[in-house]
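Hallway conversation turned thread

IA: we were arguing at lunch whether anyone had actually written out Flagellar assembly protein FliH end to end. Turns out nobody had. So, for the record, here is the sequence (217 residues) and right after it the structure tokens. Reply here if something looks off.
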Amino acid sequence: MASDIPHEKFGFDTVFDGAGDVAFAQPRPKRSYSAEEVEAVRQTAFAAGESQGLASTAALQAQALSRIADAARAALPTLAEVAHEHRLGSAHLALACAKAIADAALLRFPEAPIQAALESLAREIEAAPRLVVSANPDLAVALEPLLAEVAQGIGYAGAIHIKPAAGLGHAAFTLDFGDGAAAYDPGAAAERVAVVLEAALAAEGLHAEPLIPGSEG
């Protein structure tokens, strides 16, 4: 039965032509090398190994950089949340500090808001025949000389009536000048500022400026 396995052709080490001359001779392995030849072989092998090692190192570096980039991209949402919490904490701390400073200033100068309001409303109240000022009883006692001085400074010639109002908090007041009115309550003003701040922070959410320039895309 014939086999389908191809036969390997026999190779001759030496081939002669028709004249008996050597047409082909298989190179025989060298059995001895000079020191220069050994050094050349060593350098060639070293260069080949170094090149292969550098290529392998470059591939490992590329893989490591790719993994680092993937990890950084995965961490960005968490960093955005941390940054947002930091913004919230910073805003609340700033608001608390501002409220503490304002409370201390109002405790030291409770009449200052009324004075500022009268100076700001000078044109509105200048023709009013009467100005009614309601304030906390403790503040009302100190207001009469101050209001007289402010009225003279803004040119108001009408009558000023001061009404103690127990329901008003410290440094709070209302002004009634017939055709208009004004009021100030430090506690309510602080609450309005807090509401506006919370609304701004909620609207901003996690969409503030990017943590890393160019990372918004």
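OS: looked through it. Confidence is low (pLDDT under 50) at residues 211-217.
IA: good, adding that to the notes. The chain is about 55% helix and 10% strand.
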